[in-house]
């Protein structure tokens, strides 16, 4: 079975200003590398559909979702914070970004694909139940995970977050929920400046010092995630795939390269094949060096699709 690649033209229309690193050209950079690497034609392609209000309200507060709907500007930008702005297309893009995960879960459960990558934006893992922040409005991975738990009645799912920033929104939504094991690493003392000393036991988010190498991060994954993941035996695996821990990315200072992303993806696949029949839905989160982003997504997809 193949890997499903989900995106939507609406995800290209959300933009927050020419200066902003979370820009539509990120999707172009990924698409260019899919074509030039020759893997584009080996993937299944689908356009995402809208997440419904009910889908979004499983993890976000009603007042917050109403606020976002009211705040769509007719032109220009509505500034939620200096880094997180809505343009006239943001809400539509956010619905399509969240809907991609739901389409992915349903496609995998129907046997149409083995796993899926959602090339969507705005990203989601910083979006809190009642707050947009860090370029994120709707928590796409949380919407999909909550949908899978409810619709398919899974007893155990895992969320793996390898973005360089802490997935604070996702952590807040599932802290203490024993159906969920979240594993992440993040560069300490950068945005969103979360401290993880007293995490609930279903949260394995590990701080990493600036300038850590890919080798150090691989060791952390091996020592701190893998035993727990194999023991937990998730029935479905969700991935917050941010590529901003890449050594060429200027938003952080870690030293990963494409081979490290391929290796981490292989670990994720091994967990999914052990207990989840290979079921994985991966979401694009960060990654702001356009060239490194495109190359790293291809490395991730080649492992998912066994190419
Ligand atoms: Zn990030």
From TrEMBL:
One of its GO terms (biological process) is epigenetic regulation of gene expression. Residues 20-304 form the Histone deacetylase domain. InterPro entries: HDACs, His_deacetylse_dom, His_deacetylse_dom_sf, Ureohydrolase_dom_sf. Pfam families: Hist_deacetyl. One of its GO terms (molecular function) is histone deacetylase activity. Gene3D superfamilies: Histone deacetylase domain (3.40.800.20). Belongs to the histone deacetylase family. This is Histone deacetylase family protein.
